[in-house]
Amino acid sequence: QVQLVESGGGLVQAGGSLRLSCAASGRTFSNYDMGWYRQGPGKEREFVAAIRWSGGSTYYADSVKGRFTISRDNAKNTVSLQMNSLKPEDTAIYYCNTYRGPYSRRDPGYWGQGTQVTVSS
């Protein structure tokens, strides 16, 4: 069992920044590739970013490349998403997730409860 708790969401103006954090507990955090998904109003859940268990490689959706940065601190059992140059279309509920295997397989395991990000124009 893995418990994931997101924090850091809120309301921000277009062009602003937010930093989301995900705290993990349960099984050894460093064993998992980790990531973030989001779901905007009336939209399907979409992949945002992922990071290997070691933190050695990352992957981003085209829509956020150059603006978002995923990172992790295995000593603290946390994964973060730094979001810069935010746009109204970034408005969504953001979910932290584990992967059952390498992130390239796109097979999520555990999910957090989500945190709301709202970007005003």
Commentary on this structure:
- This protein has no helices and 11 strands.
- Helix content is 0%, strand content 53%.
- The protein has 121 residues and is mainly beta.
- Strand 9 and strand 10 form a beta hairpin.
- Strands 2, 4, 5, 6, 9, 10 and 11 form a 7-stranded mixed β-sheet that branches. Strands 1-3-8-7 form a 4-stranded antiparallel β-sheet, with no helix packed on it.
Residue windows where pLDDT falls under 50 for at least 5 positions = none
Span between termini: 40 Å
**Structural class designation:** mainly beta
Give a quick account of the main beta sheet: strands, pairing sense, barrel closure. Answer: 7 strands, mixed
For the secondary structure, the number of strands is: 11
What's the helix-strand series? EEEEEEEEEEE
Query: In percent, how much strand structure appears in the residues?
Result: over 45%
Radius of gyration based on Cα positions: 13 Å
What is the percent of helical residues?
under 10%
Shape: globular
Mean pLDDT value:
94
Tally of contiguous helical segments: 0
